[in-house]
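@channel sequence for tomorrow's demo:
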Amino acid sequence: MNFFKLFLPAARPSAASNNQGSTRLSAVLFTLLIIGIFFIFYFYRAPVKAFAKESVELYGYPALFAFCWFADAVIQPIPPDVVVFGTAFGGASVWKTSVAAGIASAMGGTTGYFIGKYFGPWRFRRFFGSKLLRAGRDLFRDHGSLAIFVAGVSPIPYSAVCWIGGIYNMPLGKVVIASLISRLPRFIAVAWIADLV
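structure tokens (generated this afternoon):
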């Protein structure tokens, strides 16, 4: 079973070309976003660094922790990597930044797990349909920890996967362990890259 199908709406055969077009558009927009970020850092590196340094001095690790927790507890478009990168880019310790963000992210995933447990499968079915519900059940029954790990290190929405783990009553200990062993290395890499830049 394709893991990505879990997060994509079921496509009707007549809509296949529309999905292909939207996938291409998403890839082009993502590429333009990366190029735009590169140019911002290339031309405005000093002001961005000064802003990041000032933010770290004013708000520090508590703000990093709170943002990373919230970003992974609630499904929303801004990943915690942005704040982790900015914190390390602003001169904070790579190790303290990555550990604070990793623990906060795992706690956010655990919060998402409990939110999914609260909402349960019937609300999920109402929003996303029975087919996706069955696919998620099969995935979490067979590969629950692996799904959390893959979402923790990849662009797959980690918070959504944690919610689905709660919906299907995945053991909480597995969620926490898979979250920690995936999020800590990811944030170490992000903070290290920011420190090199």
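heads up for whoever presents: The radius of gyration is 18 Å.
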